[in-house]
Specification:
The chain is built from 67 helices and 20 strands. By secondary structure, the protein is α+β, with helices and mostly antiparallel strands. Strands 2, 3, 4, 7, 8, 9, 10, 11, 12 and 13 form a 10-stranded antiparallel sheet that branches. Strands 1, 5, 6, 14, 15, 16, 17 and 18 form an 8-stranded mixed sheet that branches. Helix 34 runs antiparallel to helix 35 and helix 35 packs parallel to helix 38. The chain starts with 14 loop residues before the first helix and ends with a helix.
């Protein structure tokens, strides 16, 4: 191994960086110029006319003896010559002798590729000069006397009498680049040195003395033409008749043997051959002369002397890469902590070290291994060491290459993966040794390796090589580390928490991918392959200086890089190239064409590819793991998972100075306590609550620590109530509340704090001994902390009013403090906050329940002041009527609030009676709701309850069962009460089941209207079906679910039960005994009970003078009975029930009170009466006629402008039920007046209340159907605009119940065929957003498992689109695409698909653009292949046929783009769909037709392929 050269031969720093890279790449055509010859460039200079005293330099003659001069050997850089031979003195001290070059670049000179400093340009030198030394000395500078034609001529002439001639061969002229020259000349210099060297000519120079006769005996030594000792020796050559004394400067050494005995011609030929040889060896060229230009000088007074100011460093070290230059390589020297004795292990071992280092650098930088090149090892220290210290390191040359050079490197020097080698799975990390020698391929060369052998052995010994042995040891350690990480990150218990903490999951690798592909794919996020080499080098140095980088924490995975440091790297000069020389898009091809690199000798390595690849895979995964947010913490967590709770808590306290380890301990505790109850219990036993609180206090300004602390506290208290007791016992609440106050704007932390405070307050309420009005967060803790915690909760609720979780947790807490809030003056503020929260989250059952509990616990005294409390409760009950838990809580709250008379009146005025009865009617099977409701009704309306009890007994006995469903109830209600398939599967006879169901709930013709015989009239998307099932009554109008009539719930036993047929036998026995089975089959009141209730209602409005709440309850009872059964409605009419309701509505007994609040007591009664009339009229024409006969329409119009919104809703609902039958009440009366009803209807159609907007739209629908817009109506435009607004709001809120009447009304307006109603059609068609709104509901109906109301709304919208399309409405490309999508999707109902196909068919037949039709066809096929399954392809075939027709009629529509679309569509056709073959045939015909028209398809070949 060659030793590092001594100080006497140290090269200029930066000289070798470029050349060793080119040599490693295999380039033999690249050469460099000697740096000493380029050193004068850029230096300040002056022409020195004084003679230099030669006596000061022994053995040298004065300069006047030589035209070409000499440089004194003791100061070689001080004097040079210009082109005229004049002496030039250089300014010393301007640059260090070993100053580095800023950058190297490649330049082309004839057939040579020169590696020169980037600040220079080169060109060919001038012609060769042969001059007579005697003529020049005598002052002759021109003509034949001073020069010779050739060497032969010079030798021939001088061989006669002797003489000396100069043979100057200038080969290259180097000059500063334009910017470098400008920088040099414009930089002020000392006045004594006014010039600057801007160019230098390099070549060779010979001084040849021809001696004849007696001169040959003297052998006088000629002076040297160069200061170099090797070139100062003269050659004495005996020739034919004369002797030559030659002194050489530059060029390859002359061989005197070849000149010996030659004549003048032979000498000339030999020197010409020498010149030709020298042209290919630029490293032997020397400086001949320089070119000067005047430069700027500093004329300031401070420049009095030359030494007062030293110029800057050399231009070559300052001027580097030019704009547009391409970085090819960045080099450096890296000192590695390796024993220098390893250098003697052999070249195979050194190559193994190089490969390991290259792989590691490629991994950390995210580049391919071939971009890293390693050079020679050197016995050299970059970091200064003491002389007596043992040398424990070596230095290695490295270079980072441009990614374009990878193709040149591959297969030459860097390791290459063998495809036949199986790649080990990085994630599974099986523990296995590298393959045995028997498993290795024959291509692997090198010493044999035995897996059983171990220990470091010398290269000459037997057994496993040292590098492989060391690498396998590192591999085993790395596998242990990686396996622990992999198990931790992929553990099912930790996966959920790891993802929530953004902890990374180890990537999966494919066994079929090469290592370079794996690295380039998995590290793309780290570094792009286009990053220039200098940036990569900077990043590498930064990584080496980062003590937290994974390579410092895992030396077993980074065995080479872990031995280097940032201070042990010296960056060399980069290698650049102009884009004129190297094409940046084809770097490898350009380098091959210019440099003609050869394949260098491949170095053998001791390492196997499998070992390298395994380590590299683990390095990639480790780096990816650390690159993720919190990756360092995740790695630390893997070491802590096996610790016990005590050990983990102890380590957490002891690692407070190590933030990463400290955070890892907290994260591990979070993961452990998330689901492990036992872990929480054991932590509490080891004082985990107190110790964690102390840590939170210590790091009270560190958000991450405090946040993790609150997560732990929340999980402690969730799994272990003892932790809550410990907080209360140790008085830790103040510290926790203070920590929350430190981070008021941290939403996540405040949520965790709300959870913790909730459990603390609930536990404190349970343990309090002073009653629920006095709660403290500790036995002897000051009550002020109770209010501080309360203030924190209220502040959080105000700040994060849109966070549902925070609002819910806070409401649960406040519910435990209800009495305390009112006693301490918080009731008003709390109510404002919860009222806002309940309004914003009106769809959250749990939140509304807690809000109702809070209002009830604020007390009746507060309710007497704040009347909005009852309204809030009633609205919540109306929006969630189907939720039994909420209804139970609300009924209990209303009962609790009715203890005082003032609060009771507030409850009555707020609709408490109606809400309570609606809860009982909605859940008659819930004993808790019925019992609590009965108690509450006894408070609100005692006389009505007494009358009802006297007539019916318990109210629950007359309440019919109901059924809550996601949509309107179907015609066969009882089918929803039974799982018939399950009953049949249990062994029951199917025929008997059908008979039993029919017997229990026979069809009652009286329950149906006149149109029930026609099943199509019962569809929800048409007007008649909407009247029967779509327009909901007050009891379920605001709920998301729909209430239906329930008949009889029967529990059928399996056939294996002996008593499975007992019920049927009992029914048969009762029937034989003459019993009335209708009671069993039809729950509800009998005729006597209905008659008694109607009489009580009439008498209550007259002589009995019941209160408004008594009349309200009676009206609600009758309304419910009428809603539930058509026969009950007819009985009520016959018993004067309608008359009693009208009487209550017309009475003035509740008006004109001195207190306006007393007038509001009648509002709920009026709403109940209007609702009862509406329930009566829902059963058809007869009940409606009875109501109209008593002027119910006029009564309804009296209340459409009522102050109370619930009364207005009931009035509009009644009008909607009366309008269809108003024209038929008698021949003498006309329909209701449109001019009277439409203005308030149009106004309320834009209301913010969804229920009011729905019933108003229903009124508008009935008016349209009744012909209100026929003729010259002035309300047509306004009504059309109001319908679009109502539909827009319903679409935004996704309310299908509200959209249904608007869609049906729009369909009716758009489908009129009479000429007199053309204005109606135009009014609705002119609305800009109509089509988009219709398509929105079509899309909602086409999804899988859409609700019945949504399906009906979508079908109504599709029918309207069909009508518009048939009438000639223009549909754009997006609309057509939507219709095509929803008209062919398999998830849509057949009726919806049919309507969409019809609408699309009309539009397609009018379409004239074949390109648009082909785009529709191709787009739908692409969507079908990606997302949705198609039902059939008939529509696509129709589109293809229309496109074919258009192409035949207009061949100019055919284009290459259309042809490309058709070619892409053919493979997208689904194979298993109806119409596949026909569609493929049509596409082939279209493709052939378009190809013939565009002349781009070989028709014959197409037909042959089809055949």
């Amino acid at each position: 191994w060659p030793l590092w050269p001594g100080p006497a031969s140290l090269p200029v720093r930066g000289r070798a960086e470029a050349m060793w890279v080119w040599r490693s790449l295999g380039s033999e055509q690249t050469a460099e110029l000697p740096p000493t010859a380029l050193a004068p460039l850029g230096k300040r200079s002056r022409k020195d006319g004084a003679k230099v005293d030669a006596t000061n330099y022994p053995g040298r003659r004065s300069q006047e003896d030589s035209q070409w001069g000499t440089r004194p050997s003791t100061a070689p850089d001080e004097f040079v010559k210009d082109s005229r031979g004049e002496n030039v003195e250089l300014l010393l001290g301007s640059s260090a002798p070993d100053e580095a070059v800023a950058a190297w670049r490649v330049a082309t000179l004839n057939d040579l590729q020169l590696c020169i400093p980037a600040a220079l340009d080169v060109k060919s030198g001038p012609s060769i000069q042969i001059m007579d030394a005697a003529a020049i000395t005598n002052g002759v500078s021109s003509g034949d006397k001073s020069s010779f034609k050739s060497v032969k001529d010079a030798v021939k002439r001088l061989s006669r009498q002797g003489g000396t001639f100069w043979y100057r061969v200038p080969l290259v002229e180097t000059m500063l680049r334009e910017d470098a020259s400008a920088d040099t000349l414009h930089t002020p210099g000392p006045p004594a040195y006014p010039h600057a060297v801007v160019a230098a000519t390099l070549g060779m120079l010979l001084r040849v003395k021809v001696s004849v006769g007696s001169d040959t005996a003297s052998r006088t030594s000629l002076p040297s033409v160069n200061g170099d000792a090797e070139e100062s020796k003269a050659l004495f050559v005996q020739c034919d008749g004369f002797e030559l004394t030659i002194v050489q400067k530059g060029g390859p050494p002359l061989d005197p043997i070849k000149l010996h005995g030659k004549n003048d011609e032979g000498i000339g030929q030999e020197l010409e051959h020498w010149v030709k040889k020298a042209r290919t060896r630029p490293q032997t060229w020397r400086l001949l002369y320089v070119a000067l230009q005047p430069g700027a000088v500093d004329t300031s007074p401070s420049m009095g002397s030359m030494a007062s100011r030293i110029p800057r460093s050399g231009i070559l070290s300052r001027m580097g890469r030019e704009m547009g230059d391409l970085f090819l390589a960045a080099s450096a020297e890296m000192e590695l902590a390796i024993d220098p004795f390893e250098i003697s292990y052999g070249e195979s071992h050194l190559e193994s070290l190089r490969r390991l280092l290259a792989e590691e650098i490629a991994n950390v930088l995210g580049i391919e291994p071939e971009q890293v090149m390693c050079g020679d090892f050197m016995f050299k220290s970059i970091i200064p060491k003491k002389k007596h210290a043992k040398r424990d390191s070596v230095t290695l040359q490295i270079a980072l290459l441009h990614h374009g050079l990878v193709d040149i490197v591959r297969g030459r020097e860097m390791p290459r993966r063998k495809p036949e080698r199986p790649k080990p799975l990085g994630n599974s990390m099986r523990k296995e040794e590298p393959p045995s020698p028997s498993a290795r391929s024959d291509a692997d060369k090198g010493p044999a390796m035995s897996p059983a052998s171990g220990g470091a052995q010398s290269p000459t010994g037997k057994g496993r090589p040292v590098a492989l042995n060391r690498t396998i040891t590192s591999l085993k350690e790395a596998e242990v580390t990686f396996e622990t990480l992999q198990k931790t990150m992929n553990s099912p218990k930790k996966l959920k928490m790891s993802k929530s903490k953004s902890s990374p999951v180890l990537p999966a690798k494919s066994a079929n991918r090469s290592m370079s592909e794996t690295l380039s794919s998995t590290t793309t996020s780290l570094t792009s392959k286009d990053t220039p080499p200098d940036s990569l080098m900077k990043k590498l140095i930064s990584i080496l200086g980062d003590q937290k980088h994974p390579l410092r924490k895992h030396p077993e995975i980074f065995p080479m890089l872990s031995k280097a440091s940032r201070t042990a790297v010296v960056v060399g000069s980069p290698l650049v190239a102009s884009q004129d020389v190297i094409d940046p898009n084809k770097v490898a091809d350009s380098v091959r064409s210019i440099m003609k690199p050869k394949k260098p000798k491949k170095m053998e390595s001791e390492l196997e590819s499998t070992v390298l690849e395994t380590l590299s895979s683990m390095r990639t995964d480790i780096l990816k793991l650390y690159a993720e947010p919190g990756g360092d913490v995740a790695v630390e967590k893997t070491k802590l998972l096996q610790l016990s709770p005590k050990e983990l808590m102890d380590l957490t306290e002891s690692s407070t100075s190590q933030l990463v380890l400290f955070m890892a301990c907290l994260d591990v505790m979070i993961e452990k306590t998330e689901t492990d109850v036992d872990f929480c219990l054991r932590l509490r036993l080891h004082y985990g609550v107190e110790r964690l609180t102390a840590l939170m206090r210590r790091f009270n300004s560190n958000r991450e620590v405090v946040y993790r602390g609150f997560i732990l506290m929340a999980q402690f208290t969730m799994h272990d109530m003892g932790c809550v007791d410990r907080i209360l016992e140790k008085h830790l609440a103040p510290e926790l509340i203070t920590s929350l106050d430190n981070f008021p704007n941290d939403q996540k932390m405040q949520f965790r704090g709300c959870q913790l405070l909730k459990r603390m307050y609930l536990r404190a309420r349970e343990q309090t001994l002073a009653g629920s009005r006095i709660i403290t967060l500790g036995k002897s803790l000051d009550e002020v902390w109770t209010f501080k915690g309360l203030e924190r909760i209220l502040a959080v609720m105000t700040l994060y009013s849109l966070d549902h979780d925070i609002q819910l947790e806070s409401m649960i807490l406040l519910a435990s403090l209800g009495e305390l809030l009112y006693n301490n003056g918080y009731a008003k503020d709390v109510f404002k906050i919860i009222e806002v929260s309940m309004r914003k989250f009106s769809k959250s059952n749990a939140l509304l329940e807690q809000g109702i509990v809070i209002i009830s616990r604020l007390g009746s005294s507060f309710l007497a002041v704040e009347h909005r409390g009852v309204k809030t409760i009633v609205e919540s009950m109306g929006k969630h009527r189907s939720n039994q838990d909420l209804q139970s809580v609300a009924v209990r709250a209303l009962f609790a609030l009715s203890k005082e008379e003032v609060a009771l009146n507030a409850s009555r005025a707020g609709g408490g009676v109606g809400a309570i009865f609606a809860a009982m009617a909605s859940h008659p099977g819930s004993a808790q709701v019925v019992q609590e409701g009965t108690r509450a009704l006894e408070k609100h309306c005692p006389r009505a309850v007494a009358v009802t009890a006297r007539l019916c007994g318990d109210i629950s006995s007359v309440l019919s069962p109901v059924l809550w469903a996601a949509g309107p109830p179907e015609t066969s209600v009882n089918s929803l009460l039974f799982d018939l398939e399950e009953i049949k599967a249990n062994g029951w006879d199917p025929q008997r089941i059908e008979t039993f169901m029919g017997d229990l709930s026979p069809k009652d013709k009286d329950d149906r209207g006149d149109d029930d015989d026609d099943a199509s009239n019962d569809r929800l998307e048409i007007a008649s079906g909407f009247r029967k099932r779509g327009l909901r009554d007050d009891i379920d109008a605001a709920d998301q679910r729909w209430m239906g009539i329930g008949k009889v719930k029967v529990k059928l036993q399996p056939r294996s039960n002996p008593a499975h047929d007992v019920l049927q036998r009992d029914l048969d026995s009762l029937k034989r005994q003459g019993c009335d089975l209708s009671i069993l089959r039809q729950p509800g009141p009998d005729s006597d009970q209905l008659r008694g209730l109607c009489d009580a209602l009439v008498r209550g409005a007259g002589p009995k003078k019941y209160t408004a709440q008594d009349g309200e309850l009676l009206a609600l009872l009758l309304a419910h009975f009428a809603w539930n059964s058509g026969p009950h409605a007819l009985e009520m009419i016959a018993n004067g029930g309608v008359k009693g309701l009208i009487t209550w509505l017309k009475t003035d007994r509740f008006k004109g009170n001195a207190d306006p609040h007393l007038d509001s007591l009648a509002f709920p009664m009026q709403r109940a009466c209007l609702s009862a009339l509406s329930c009566l009229c829902r059963h058809g024409e007869d009940p409606a006629a009875a109501a109209l006969e008593l002027e119910a329409d006029e009564v309804a119009l009296m209340y459409v402008g009522h102050l109370d919104i619930s009364v207005r809703i009931a009035a509009f609902r009644l009008l909607a039920r009366l309008i269809p039958h108003a024209a038929r009440r008698s021949p003498k009366q006309e329909s209701l007046s449109a001019d009277t009803i439409l203005p308030p209807v149009i106004k309320e159609m834009r209301s913010e209340d969804e229920v009011l907007r729905t019933v108003a739209t229903a009124c508008a629908l009935e008016g349209i159907l009744d012909g209100w817009l026929s003729g010259e109506s002035t309300h047509t435009e306004d009504l059309a605009a109001a319908l679009i607004d109502a539909l827009d709001q319903a679409t935004t809120l996704d309310s299908s119940a509200a959209a249904l009447p608007a869609l049906i009304a729009v369909a009716r307006m758009a489908s009129t065929e009479e000429e007199s109603e053309d204005a109606v059609v135009q009014a609705i068609v002119r609305q800009d957003s109509l089509v988009s709104l219709l398509l929105a509901w079509v899309s909602k109906a086409a999804v899988h498992a859409a609700l019945p109301a949504a399906r009906a709304a979508g079908l109504a919208a599709a029918n309207t689109l069909r009508t518009l399309s048939e009438a000639g409405a223009a549909l754009g490309g997006n609309e057509l695409a939507s219709l095509l999508r929803y008209g062919t999707t398999a998830s849509a109902e057949p009726a919806l698909r049919e309507a969409c196909e019809a609408a699309l068919g009309f539009a397609v037949q009018r379409e004239q653009d074949a390109g648009l039709l082909v785009q529709l066809l191709t787009g739908r096929l692409r969507l079908a292949s990606d997302e949705e399954r198609m039902a059939d392809l008939e529509v696509l075939i129709m589109i293809a046929q229309r496109a074919e027709t258009l192409l035949k009629n207009d061949p100019h529509q055919a284009s290459e783009h259309l042809l490309i679309e058709l070619e892409e569509a053919e493979p997208l056709v689904p194979p298993d769909t109806k119409g596949t073959r026909d569609l493929l045939t049509m596409i082939e015909e279209l493709t052939g037709l378009a190809g013939r028209m565009t002349a781009t398809v070989d028709v014959a070949s197409k037909l042959q392929d089809a055949a």
